Amino acid sequence: MSPTSFTVRPLVYEDHEWVLEMVRHWGGTDYIVSRGRVIYAAELPGFCAKTADGETLGLATFEVTGEECQLVTLHALTRFAGIGTGLLTAVRDAAAAAGCRRLWLITTNDNVDALRFYQRRDFELVAIHRDLREVARRLKPSIPLVGEYGIPLRDEIELEMSLR
């Protein structure tokens, strides 16, 4: 299989258990915390990337509120294969179709790979929410003190893309 031989499709009811497993894999619970709010990502609309033989390669979930769409989760099981970009494109298109003016997301200060990924796809840094991980740890104690690359996990970084 070549790295680009996959399709992106909307999540369906039968995907629920897999989505729940993915969310639990990221943090050991059924939810994530973003900007001090608990979000049950497995209950949200989204997309998955699959091979022709049904192997799931990635997941994106999102939440539309008014004219804004938050990309809640994005995970490609294989890096540098176009999976994350394909999922992000599907969410962007769904947000635009829903009349959203803004697609936004939160990542953490240690997630330098995500910062690179999103900025290369027209997202701009718009806010740093300092020490918000302390608030998040009260809601989700499993959040570690140290994140990727040994970087202390402290802040949430907000990125956005204009859809108009």
Describe the protein.
This protein has helices spanning 16-27, 83-97, 112-119, 132-139; strands at 7-10, 32-34, 37-39, 46-50, 56-65, 68-76, 102-108, 124-129, 156-162. The chain has 164 residues and is α+β, with helices and mostly antiparallel strands. It has one domain: Aminopeptidase (3-Layer(aba) Sandwich), CATH 3.40.630. The strands form 2 sheets. Strands 1-4-5-6-7-9-8 form a 7-stranded mixed beta sheet, with helices on both faces. A two-stranded antiparallel ribbon has the order 2-3.
Query: How many domain units?
Result: 1
What does the overall shape look like? Answer: globular
Question: For the record, what CATH class applies?
Answer: Alpha Beta
CA-atom Rg in angstroms: 15 Å
Q: What is the CATH homology-level superfamily? A: Gcn5-related N-acetyltransferase (GNAT)
Classify the helix fraction into a percent range.
Answer: 25-40%
Second-tier CATH architecture: 3-Layer(aba) Sandwich
The biggest beta sheet, please? 7 strands, mixed
Structural class per helix/strand content?
Answer: alpha+beta
Largest sheet: spatial strand order: 1-4-5-6-7-9-8
State the low-pLDDT regions, or none.
none
Keywords:
4 helices; Aminopeptidase; seven-stranded mixed sheet; alpha+beta; 164 residues
Which secondary structure elements does this structure contain, and how are they paired or packed?
Elements: E1 7-10, H1 16-27, E2 32-34, E3 37-39, E4 46-50, E5 56-65, E6 68-76, H2 83-97, E7 102-108, H3 112-119, E8 124-129, H4 132-139, E9 156-162
